[in-house]
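Acylphosphatase: structure, please.
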Amino acid sequence: MSSQIKKSKTTTKKLVKSSPKAQLPKAAAQNQIFSCQFEVFGHVQGVFFRKHTQKKAIELGITGWCMNTTQGTVQGMLEGSLDQMTDMKYWLQHKGSPRSVIEKAVFSENEPLPINNFKMFSIRR
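Here you go.
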């Protein structure tokens, strides 16, 4: 009988010890950084769209960049958590700068990153 008690104590100890390890992937997933490219179409140049995009990205904690294109769109790269990315994508699709008229926004797939490639969100010229 005492051997059964020892085994159950050992088993209990193993379960307790392995429990935090089981939680690590969850915590790591919440802190995972993702990146995606975007392009916004419509009346998005000459209306301070890039400046407002930078302001919103900084507010959300997103890093990356944006720039005007010769086709009249705004393109860029976003890096952040899934929640940050979701909020920024919504803003790029539906809000934008006060004077912009967004027709559509296109995003690449979210790609997981080991670390951020950018330290801040910048406007490229």
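Notes: The longest strand covers residues 33-43.
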